[in-house]
Amino acid sequence: MQVGSIMRKVKSRAWKKQRYFRLQDDCATIWYKSKKAGNAHSTCKLRWLWKPPLISISDVEAVREGHQSEVLLSIADEFPPDRCFTLVFRGRRGNLDLVAESAEEAQSWVKGMRKLIENLENMNERERLDQWISDWFKKADKNGDGRMNFKEVQDLLKMMNVDMNEHHALRLFTMADKSQSGTLEDDEFVLFYKMLTQREEVLRIFQDYSSDGQTLSCRDLEEFLREGQLKQDHVQQHSMELIEQYEPSDTAKMRQAMTIDGFQMYLLSPEGSIFNPAMLEQHQDMSQPLSHYFISSSHNTYLMGDQIRGHSSVEAYIRALKRGCRCVEVDCWDGPNGEPIVYHGHTFTSKILFKDVVTVVGNYSFKTSQYPVILSIENHCSVEQQRTMAQHLTRILGDKLLRNALEGKGSDLPSPEDLKGKILLKGKKIGGLERSLDGVVEDSLAAEVSDEDDAAEIEEENLHNDSIRRKPKKSKQGLSKELSDCVVYCKSVHFNSFKHSRIHSKFYEISSFAESKAKKHMKDAGAEFVHHNARQLTRIYPNGIRTDSSNFNPQEMWSAGCQIVALNFQTAGMEMDLNDGLFTQNGCCGYVLKPAFMRSVEKRFDPEHPEIRDGYRPVTLTIKVISGQQLPKVNLKEGSIVDPLVRVEIHGVPKDQARQETRHIDNNGFNPMWHETLTFTIHVPELALVRFVVEDYDKTTKNDFIGQYTLPFSCLQQGYRHIHLLSKDGTSIPPSSLFVHIRIKEGT
């Protein structure tokens, strides 16, 4: 890899171009040169055009071997699978498909990339910091001589979001230049970096608890854990464990003490994070009925872009499933040659084969989570092609497809634990679990084959806005027995009323609502909606007018106990931040147990009136926003430095919705200090999510997004905590963070 290889970069069957890839000496970056023919005077010589680094290893999530992408599948007849591989990037960045000159060369890159990714993932905090320092040194060392002069230092400070006057910068430079050579070498640069990044606020806390001003003894650390971190249990044992795990000095370890370096390493570690590490593990009861869980769900999963002209791709299913999504949607239409296709009907979105979608779902459903996947079918196919769909489902999925009801589950939905490794079909069904009908249902059921009709939804909303347009007719199709038999516990039915459901609905029936209809039900009968969702599954999907693939706020639907809240996973923003925040807990398995008061069919909970319930105990959340560290630049204009502010948002029942902001700090994205306290009263902490947003203040235009972090209130750790910020795509942006103090008090 460090020698370099010529490989084909493939974007489509028609676009295959040679590129020269080489791993840089830092083993953290791959760059390429594009090969182009020279001009007429070059006499058949090849010239290489330099391009900036293409790939950071930290941006690569996985490496797939063979024809495991749509692009590589399209050229499968040209290149054998053992020469092909795909680099899958974090977030929403497109894949990189490559074809090596030989199978041996492909294997070298596949194994090498996987090893590099593994090494990065296994780095501890100190190693990550060393890597980060090394990266900055290379950025600053413009001429590549392994030294950094003062001009390069000044450029570095601007790159690092630091607005420092020349006199102070020169003073730090001179102090670090131990060799008095007028330049900084490796060790001197590390010293310069340490002086630059000295955390005064952390040092102050350290000294407040240190008996001798130099170290924290076990007793000092115990006091810090009790008073600073608000911990009460096993603090003596915990203090010794912290010293053993985070203290870099062997001398201090022998004395059972912690230095400032060890203290800072602890605060920056996962244990010092705002997200309680115990909640990241799968810890919830998974043996309750499916209706008792919030389920991570995707809308029109096949789309990579908007709802009108967006690209349809099996890659979208892979990405959703690997993010822990447990309910994916498939819009099925008649295709050529008797093969059903998937696309957003009556639009210009591209089309993919239904059987390819099923293959991907079969291959990727259980890589992130073993708990069941629901395949939500929006069926627009003829009876003949429905039979083909059923054949593909049974042949490709095999035993993974749930075909029969589980024994002993005659009156309630099975649990995620019962259904481990199973794929459930959601769709129309002839009859119920109690009996099976023969033949094909004709027009009596035909009008309800599809329980979602975006065209009608758009029409309904346009009419509401006094826009005159002819309402499209629903197509009437029969339902094949073969496809019907694939549906067991998720029979799609039309919703009439909560009273009708209480009397007539079966536990295995599920209704779908557009967001606007769901909101109306919440407003008119919130407690009834919650009660309905204690026994039956409900799916909420975006209004049809969201043609840009924007999302609604899922928290509103979770507050009513709706389990399957389907979002456009391809669209970044606050809504997906909330979804990611909720489902990060419990092992990212895609299922989160609802609070007890939302699971009971005997009791009533009204999200509009949360105080009317047993066990009502509001809490006060106090957040002291202390400082920020190494915030990324959002404006790449030379000399531009961010003016950061922090906004804290509470998302929950209507009474809990709140937001507060700090002031902005002028020209400092490197180590801004706020020391501001924000206080919130939360009435239903079990449903609340807390979102931290950092923005670049602009008094004339909308603030620019810098980073965010969202987590359930129930997963907060009290005390001094770091918040490791995420990008708009939800990927980490190390070492950017916030430093806060969290305190939770029962009562108001």
What does this structure look like?
- With 748 residues, the chain is of the alpha+beta class.
- It folds into 5 domains: 5-36 and 46-122, Roll (PH-domain like), CATH 2.30.29; 127-197, Recoverin, domain 1; 200-272, Orthogonal Bundle (Recoverin, domain 1), CATH 1.10.238.10; 290-437 and 476-598, Phosphatidylinositol (PI) phosphodiesterase (TIM Barrel, Alpha-Beta Barrel); 615-746, C2 domain (Immunoglobulin-like), CATH 2.60.40.150.
- It is 29% helix and 24% strand.
- The chain has 22 helices and 29 strands.
- An 11-stranded mixed β-sheet has the order 14-13-12-15-16-17-18-19-20-11-21. Strands 1, 2, 3, 4, 5, 6, 7 and 8 form an 8-stranded antiparallel β-sheet that branches. A 4-stranded antiparallel β-sheet has the order 25-22-29-28.
- Helix 8 crosses helix 9 (235-246) and helix 14 runs parallel beside helix 15.
- 41% of the residues are buried.
- Mean pLDDT is 88; it is low at 37-53, 436-448 and 453-473.
- Residues 128-163, 164-199 form the EF-hand domain.
- Ca(2+) 5 binds at residues 696-698.
- This is Phosphoinositide phospholipase C.
Count up the domains.
Answer: 5
Percent in strands:
15-25%
Mean pLDDT: 88
> Main sheet, how many strands, which sense, barrel?
11 strands, mixed
Q: How many distinct helices?
A: 22
Tell the overall outline.
Answer: globular
* Uncertain segments: 37-53, 436-448, 453-473
**Helix proportion of residues, in percent?**
25-40%
Computed Rg: 29 Å
- Strand order, largest beta sheet: 14-13-12-15-16-17-18-19-20-11-21
CATH homologous superfamily of the largest domain? Phosphatidylinositol (PI) phosphodiesterase
- Measured distance between first and last alpha carbons: 61 Å
